[in-house]
């Protein structure tokens, strides 16, 4: 079996990119009005990936721990901000909660991965492993956190009367908010659970596919993908639980009072005074 891989030329990349014309034709034929959006998305895809490629190439050449850690820190910060931005209901401190949850969950799992699971690599900060794995952890943890946050906020708004009734009858803040907490965490974890259910049957994950295309033996690629799936599942669970509980602690005070006035939509007008 050959272990070589096909090095793509710019012409081959351009040929694949030209398939976006199919999307454009569909948009025009059905009058979807997606022309500008498709153009912007195409340009951003090329520019962003090209810039990331240049950055990664530089970091790989440096091979210094501070460069790897610095890049991962920037990635984590952006992931946390993005997770908070996706929430339709926000409260004071949501940005801090999202960043802390992304940071703690992904870096804890990353540390376990590099120091225990992959302890055979030359250095713990080897960029070939550290950066791609961190990127996959952040991307999936971000999704879980954003879904969990959004579901939690919407659940509190929808169940406001029920929650306040429970509290008025003497329930603790945990008893009153437990259903909303459980539903938010459950919803945030559903995407990764669904992915685990169909992986290898309905879909071949990107990492596994990329390794096979680069010449890695299929079973070795499968081993890596199994590791990645469980790392992602753990990071997503930790991040979702963390952000929901942090939000709970801000929206229910220690005197067992619900603070619905703290929850606001980005479309709401600013408060006076």
Structural overview:
There is one protein chain. By secondary structure, the chain is an all-alpha fold. It folds into 2 domains: 9-62, no CATH class; 64-262, no CATH class. Helices cover 73% and strands 0% of the residues. It is built from 10 helices and no strands. It has helices at residues 10-17, 20-29, 35-62, 65-85, 94-117, 127-158, 160-168, 173-198, 206-213, 218-251. Helix 9 packs antiparallel against helix 10. The longest helix has 34 residues, at 218-251. The radius of gyration is 22 Å and the shape is globular. The chain starts with 9 loop residues before the first helix and ends in a 22-residue tail after the last helix.
Describe this structure in a few short sentences.
The chain has 273 residues and is mainly alpha-helical. It contains ten helices and no strands. It is globular.
